[in-house]
Design a protein that fits this description.
One of its GO terms (biological process) is potassium ion transport. By secondary structure, the protein is an alpha/beta fold. It is about 35% helix and about 25% strand.
Length: about 290
Amino acid sequence: LHLAKRLSAEKHNITVLEKDPEKARYAEEHLDALVIVGSGSSVEDLKNANIDKADVFAGLSNSDEVNLLSCRLAQKLNVPYKIARVRNPEYTRPDFILSDFEMGVDLLVHPERETADAIVRLIHQSSATGVVEFKGADIQLLGIRLERNSPILGKTIGELWQKHGNIAARIVAIKRKEHTLIPGGSDILVAGDQIFVICEKKLIPTVVHITGKEDVSIQNIMILGGGLVGQFVAQSLEDTINVKIIESRSDKSEKIANALKKTLVIHGDGTDVDLLATEGILNMDAFIATTG
């Protein structure tokens, strides 16, 4: 529903296929879109939704298999671009037995994996408010909030360019309160600005230093919740960082402990202050809540 709202706001023509009549009725009342009661795994329903006129098909149901099957059908019905949301990590493994083409998919989206990757990028770049990597290039988009002691406050973009023009980095946007600005040379940076800088990965420490920020060395992390996001984060970090997961369910904590190599998994209630204190929360460099 959220995605459909955003696409509709961008003036795309949206058709929503929903098998639950109540959900379909709700969507019809809240979306500027054509809403049809039906299943993405039904060729007849897809045809009734005029799939032959679609430029993009997205399978976003709670079932991986339905999403993949519907994309395969969309491929057969000549839809140019197909997207499937999946939760099972097996489908996104490089050595999976079927290629994306064989599954009928142009893009596999794993929300939990994407969330975990974003968290890991922020752990590695602790001074940032956000980090976006560009696929196939060693370039990143870095978000940095300017504090009151930043040495670049009161400077114009032009002045920064004159002083640091030899560095291949550019401020491409500024978020100031509720507004996002595309900066020109005369724009002045003020405290609280969130600047977005595009640069090569190797230049990030230099950019961070110019803004007056300092990266905190993160060596100890506690994760609350052993769901997919928590597991993916631990898996990505456990070789270089001490990771501890607090999981409330006994059977799940045992399963996670067997799946991860170096992460310490604790069975317990993450809302128990005494437990958190016993497990050393005060000695942690970062705390990540991934429950729900």
